[in-house]
Design goal:
alpha+beta; GROEL, domain 1; GroEL; three-stranded antiparallel sheet; 17 strands; 46% helix
Length: 577
Amino acid sequence: MESVVQTVGALEAVVLRAFGPHGGQVLFTRDTGQAMLSRSGARILTALRLDNPLARIIVDCASRHSARTGDGSKSFILLLASLVRKIKCAACTDQQMSLSYPSRACSKARCLADELLSFSLHHLDNVLGVGVLPYTQCLMWDEVHAALPCPVQKLLSAFFHTRLSQNHCSFISGLLCELLSNWTIKDNQPYSSLQFLNDSWPALYTPVVGFPIVYSRLLEGQVIHRDFAIPSTQTAQGPVKAIVLTSPLHPKFIEAGETLEIGGKGDILHFSSFAESSLECVISYLCSLGVSVLLSSVKQPAVVLALAAQACISVVECISQEDLDLFIHLSEATAVSGFWNIQSKHVVSLAFCKAAVLGAHRYVHVGFPDKQDLKPCSLVVCGAGEGQTEQHALAMLDAIRMLLTTWQPPTSAQPERNSSITSNCPPRHPNCPQGCVLTAGGTFEFLLSHSLQNNSAPRHTYMISCILADSLLCLPRLIYSHKPLHFVQIQSKVIKRTHTSPMSSESSINVGSECCIQESGLESVFCKYQLLLAVLQCVSQLFRIDSVIHTRRRLKTIANISCKEEEREEEEEQVEE
């Protein structure tokens, strides 16, 4: 138990420096001399060199939660540290007893951790529904298409205040809102659009180093992160036709006397000449189809590039799978595995295809015909250095994951929750609608703590409720640590508002200008709910560890032992022979 407390305290001291809207950046120096500045909790924790197995377990739990919800790494560690201390204090009420019988204190701590997890799985939903959800508000996703600043931007702005410089939060949140507006069709559910953006993120953004972040912008269409192998001036002049290839065309694939089918059924050509003349015929056929751009996922032979250059056909080769998948999705193209399978249905139309110089690199910039309300666009993320640019891009990706969690639709068949660290995402509370938010700055913690203290649960769970309620207040205390009086004022204001009727017009909590984050800052209720469950699961797992055994050699597993036995048997058989 003491090892758990010390380990969590060490991690807490690291992330505490970057926590909250007034937190600073943490500087890391690699062995190569490269320095890294970051406020991202997930980045800070993964950058640590951890020899302690308990620390690795904690960081793994926090990283899994952050990867799923996009937020909460620092809050995870801080809330975990508070819970561990509260459990230790409750288990060691009698100091003499804990010194004389440490095993009893550890057993009691383990029981408290298990009871906390059991309470969260069976009673927390009811407490949340009574004490928190009546005072929330729901964002309408259609408002993302409204003029900035929109309500979704308020949610994003509060999110970025804990990740990036405060001077750039409004700019980045507005840019991301514009991206979401272009990629979302009106009157459609946002979850599918957000899931698509999350899955396609590597192909949707382009990092540019050496420019201020305010130079970040949106580009119409898609930026393919490759340069032209064979450029052509004709492609940049207007609408063009393109084709996607997934295999190289090499002369050895076309033998003399081979029958090559191009086009329809009645269009069969017999070739008995050299392979080069066959390629010339294929290129001529592409020209007859109006193809002026070849997009290839593999490298094409030099003879293909030479013939394409003569025919004024641009070639882009070695395109990444992410870029190719996004292009196929947007253009509705069908990839072709060989020239002999090419037909007119494989040709797609593009609004333009031209070179784009972004920073020190040249890329291929393509545009697509208009489709309803969807406006495909790519994001150019700028930064003064490579690490800063990466930090901005990761913060935007985490914001998309946070929105994805916030608008997670309720499932009809809810998975059974268990105490495993790697358990699935908890189901949405039945009374918690999509887009449910609260004013940022500790409002969720104040409401839930007050509800837990006034919970009418059975008497044997009263101590559990008090432990959880006291631990939750550690986060707002840290937020307002520079002005403790604000903590008392806002807590009193939130509790006073809970005594009003939930159906009244004043039921939604707004801490006003006293909030140090922003007057209009918002945060996701469902993300907070998931954070609390993930922390309680981690606490339960930590207190189930009986001892830590340090070894200097690699452990002998059953697989290794069986392999060695087989090697011995083979050696013995060889000796007998």
